[in-house]
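Figure 2 data, in text form.
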Amino acid sequence: MNRRQFIQLSGTMTATIALPSCTGSMNKQQGDQRLKISQLKEWEALHYGMFIHFGMSTFVVQELPDGKAPSTTYAPDKLDVDQWIGVARDAGMHYAVLTTKHVAGHCLWPTQHNDYNVSSSSNTTDVVEAFVRACEKRGIKPGFYYCSWDNHNRFGSETPSDGGDWNGQNGFPASQEGKMPPHTTSLYQNFQTAQIEELLKNYGPVMEMWIDIPGVLGRGYREYLYNYIAGKQDDIVIMMNSGIGDGTNYNVAYAWPSDLIAIERNRPPEAGHNPWREIEGSTCYLPGEHCDPIGKEWFHVPGDLPRSDAELAEQYNQCRERGVNFLLNVPPNVHGLIPQEYVDALMRLQRHVGM
């Protein structure tokens, strides 16, 4: 099962469980969500950001590796994180979100909680530190992405790579009898909490925290993690990635609680994104964030060219017209540089839409 299939399958789930981040006392002016409308409007005003998928997947040329490649496989020879953020700024972007850990489980910072990280790699640069400093230098708001689907740091967990289907309840298709659905153990959850604490404590305030594949965490730990992150940085905007779709239907059982609604791959609805949602008896204001690669792949693959200027311009304009932020993924290559063809496409887009 690949990532897209897993998210699409889990998108059928529903649930009715008590709400942690909405207070339940409706205020038509402010809503019941944790963050004030003014804080969420500040996030919406950023409009356009760069998603940066970079890590072990870049070097094994697989989006969803098995996590078994040696740490030394990660080996950028011309790594220039400042170039990434310089491109983002010059392209008219206002924020950036970095994949600190993806499915391979390899970490782009020297974490103290495992040895599968840059400190044991062929290039020991603390990419997270370099990213935050570059953002400070260039006036870009930094955000962190952290993937809960981890094929290396298992701690007894079952990941979507193991083949279990998830229908949100306890039943499985006949062919999957006896197969556990993707899930994380309490030991893994302790590990994830500890790593996120490192990221939030050691690298200063960040604007946005992305948690991908939140469905494997379970509702109880997701509530805990959401409140834990919010407790570490009061103003942080938390994205529990609700996944592929246009944002019309929100999957509470898979992704709640969250401050944002993900619109992955699909465009926002023609009528525009509706940020006001009734969730478990409360009314919450949930802005939308559309994310999509500049080409076809999240991580750089040789020959993956940017989409046409017309398509990128249409996508940018639709996000503005339909009231969502556009987080455009621009992946660095194995050298650790954003390829020139991506840079050129971004600059043409900036000119075309008049940023």
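Caption note: Residues 186-202 form the longest helix (17 residues).
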